[in-house]
Specification:
With 242 residues, this protein is of the alpha/beta class. The protein has helices at 18-29, 41-52, 68-81, 112-140, 163-182, 211-222; strands at residues 9-12, 33-38, 58-62, 87-90, 143-148, 188-193, 233-235, 238-239. α4 packs parallel to α5 (163-182).
Length: 242
Amino acid sequence: MGRHERKRIALVTGANRGLGFETSRQLARLGLRVLMTGRDEAKGREAAHTLASQGLDVLYYPLDVVSPQSVGAAARFGEVECGGVDVLVNNAGVMLDGRSPRAASAVLPTDLESFERTYAANLFGPVLLCQALVPGMRERGWGRVVNVSSGLGQLADMRAGWPAYRSSKAALNALTRVLAAELSGTNVLVNSVDPGWVRTDMGGSQADRSTLEGSDTIVWAATLPDGGPTGGFFRDRQPIPW
């Protein structure tokens, strides 16, 4: 089978639950082969088995996004064993300075370690994965990178609370802009998505969106046609202020 005829391969981080799990399901339903990644191997394999039992083409590979060695191993698996990663969904993330959007912290009492751990997962992990996988996309002339951000990272509406989380997502948005500009004209599209307030372990049970609703724009950005938008920030498939 010629390379242009093969299935697109998507790598989704934090795929064993919540938004990552639903995103994996929806991408596989669209005909992509999905490499579901996450730190917890038992839960990751169980999640992949659940989707595979529905007839979907998924597989699990262990990945800790804060570990360069782990990122390198997952990237090699995707590029060598799977034939190349075409879609990267940087979904994995943490909110350490406040357990949920209803329990915010403040800048002054937040310790530096919370900032460091938050940036490691929410920014440095995506940087490492982009560095490992985007060169292959550029070489093949097709790629989609989706950085799962948050409305809490919008500078246009930046307020008090969750300083580490907010600033890490604002930095992730900056990464989107810079990388998209560097890849202009390569057919590798890079966008940020705000999924909204979603009922996940992070969002809590009072959130107003299901994981299916939250994953919709992520999946849309992951499967944009050639000539689609790049360097944008989207909610409900519509551009929103940075």
